[in-house]
Amino acid sequence: MNSPDIRVEKGHAEPEEVAAITALLLARAAAQPAETPAHRRPKAGWRRLEREGGFRAPHSWH
User: Fold this and answer.
1) Tens-digit pLDDT profile for the chain (62 aa)?
2) Is the pTM of this model over 0.70?
3) Which residues of 20-56 are buried (b: 16+ CB within 10 A; e: fewer)?
4) Which of the two ends of the chain, N or C, has the fewest CB atoms closer than 10 A to its terminal CB?
């Protein structure tokens, strides 16, 4: 196939401009996400019964 990976929809982009956009997109795709802060509390694995509904069907997922 000879179809380009990036296509300019409106206007005219020079090859250098397309190369700059490609480099930017590849750098963003390869970037590692920032780590979550260490002071963040994990979600509790239990539920408070006073906040639960009165009845839960035995076949429900919750």
Assistant:
1) 577 777 888 899 898 998 999 999 999 988 877 776 666 677 776 777 677 766 777 776 65
2) no
3) eeeeeeeeeeeeeeeeeeeeeeeeeeeeeeeeeeeee
4) N
